[in-house]
Amino acid sequence: MKSFSEATGYLYSLFLVAVATIVCEFIRPYLVPTNMVMIYQLAVVIAAVKLGLRPAIATAFSGVLAFDFFFVPPRLTFSVADKEYLVTFSGFIVIGVIISSLVAKVREQSQEQARLSRLAEQARILQAQENLERALLNSISHDLRTPLVSIKGAISALREEGDHLSSHARRELMETAYDESERLNRFVGNLLDMTRIEAGAMRLKIEPCDIQELVGCALDAMEPRLGDRKILVDLPPGLTLVPLDMVLMNQVLVNLLDNANKYASDKSPIEIRASADEGRLCIRVSDHGPGVPEPELARLFDKFYRIAVPERVGGTGLGLSICKGFVEAHGGKISARNRDTGGLTIEIQLPLEVGKEET
Amino acid sequence: MTAAHDNSGQHKILVIDDEAAIRRFLHSALSSEEFSLHEAESGHGGLSAATAFRPDVILLDLGLPDMDGIDVIRRIREWSDVPIIVLSVREREDDKVAALDAGADDYLTKPFGVGELLARIRAALRRSLKHADEPVFRSGELVVDLTMRHVFAYGIEIQLTPTEYDLLRLFITHAGRVLTHSQILKHIWGVAYQDQSQVLRVTISNLRKKIERDPARPKHITTEPGVGYRLRIQD
Question: What is the DSSP string of A22-86?
Fold first, then answer.
């Protein structure tokens, strides 16, 4: 990589010689002219490091001329009284050229090395991206295909063998197809939510909302999945209208409830608590499930992250990252912690004044 | 509407949807002794079918290739009161509200089950058939005597404020159907309050505290997020 054009390089070399000459002029009373060569040699080294081979050689030659003209007696002429100076001149030139070519070689090598390591770094990043994309694609195609496999299998059994099946078997097949189509629909919904977050194209519709209504709505949507699981709702009576986007926050609560419902043991209750203080609304959804190993807590909201769990739990790994996206779109925060008594608490914090800024 | 259904006793349903697979599924699911089905695959086709076929209910997909579904609703509303049920996907809450405010009666979120579809169609038919309004409304544990203005929940008489009662009565006259915020606000508080959704939310919250067993999990007045409210009919 060349940082200067050739001409600029030569201009800088003349400048270096001029500087060396001025320095020598200042120290002239204290030094014999031979030692001044050191100053010019320094200029050559600087030129070699900063400007490259040819400007450095040019520095050496113009340095000799300047040295001869200004300092070698008789001064201010190019003639040389003491012929021994000719040895000094040729020594200076030879050393200058050697230094220049050595430095140039080192420079070239280090540039090559930098280029190689840049290439290696690029390749590494590309590889990592490819791995991530492959993992996402695998995950998506797995989640899309698994329900389709069951649906197609069940429907084709009914279509081709329906007459020979017992009514119980037919019922089972239909239930399977129905449940799996629900799962597929949820996954497609999740993918669309995620796409909206990633595209950064979310327009919030902030309205004053009743928290009790929000919770009721999410519980209503979850009803078929919750079965007869106990839900404990604790909302302070003073809490009335909170500015938020009802559709998005409803989805957040549904996802949190769905998560708790999947990971907690069958009969244990899920708790929903809300409180408001210091200009923030805090909603907590807690379960009595196995919780999450401490080191993995931070990764819980990552896209496609799933904790190692029994096979029956079929999550998409998108639910919590969608929650994070939607909560952050509100200017809020979401966090997870293990409960002392066992189980997981997910806490959402929303600013209460958001409604005043957005319409 | 005088001739709500033809001599065979079947209700006529017009499906306007450009997806052949969806028309096929609706055809199998709805063709029965109760319903006869007519299909149109575009907005213009739907408009002419609505004139020629005189349906009792229209199922309208909002994403038509040739014209905006909202315009189809407006054009039909210029001359007909026929109930229109809109079919739309989850992410398009604003479209649903626009369709309802343009005169649609209800909506169904795709994908939907036949149970939901039949419930919506029957609720829509109930309105258009203008059953001699029952003086007493019953749904689960909620009983409202509309002549005496008495409200009972879980066997206990409930005292409602005049506004709460008006709101409940509005829901009862639209039982099973969705009402948008602005429709309710216009009806109960007047046009000036159309954007004052806080008033509505507070009144709904108070009404629920009085008529719901668990106001945190309402069974009568349910919320349709981003759209409005619905009084669910229970057996």
Answer: HHHHHHGGGS-HHHHHHHHHHHHHHHHHHT-HHHHHHHHHHHHHHHHHHTSSSTTSS--SSTTHH
Task: Check B202 against A241: CB less than 8 A apart.
Answer: yes
Exposure class string for A268-298: b at 16+ Cβ within 10 A, else e: eebbbbbebeeeebbbbbbbbbbbbeeeebe
Q: Which of B116, B208, B223 to mutate to test the interface with A (most CBs of A within 10 A)?
A: B223
Contacts of residue B183, Cβ cutoff 8 Å, sequence gap at least 6 = B100, B101, B228
Give me the sign of the Cα torsion angle A298, A300, A306, A307: positive
Give the one of A208, A215, A231 whose C-beta lies nearest to B197's C-beta: A208
Distance (Å) from the alpha carbon of B84 to chain A's nearest alpha carbon: 24
* Segment B111-148, tens digit of pLDDT: 898 988 999 998 888 876 655 567 888 998 999 999 99
Give the bridge partners for A270, in sequence order. Answer: A231
pTM of the model: 0.71
Query: And the tokens for A198?
Result: 């990633």
Instruction: Kindly indicate whether the ipTM for this predicted assembly is greater than 0.90, answering yes or no.
Output: no
Establish how many alpha carbons lie within 13 A of residue A34's alpha carbon, considering only the half-sphere containing its beta carbon.
9
Q: Does A35 touch chain B (CB under 8 A)?
A: no
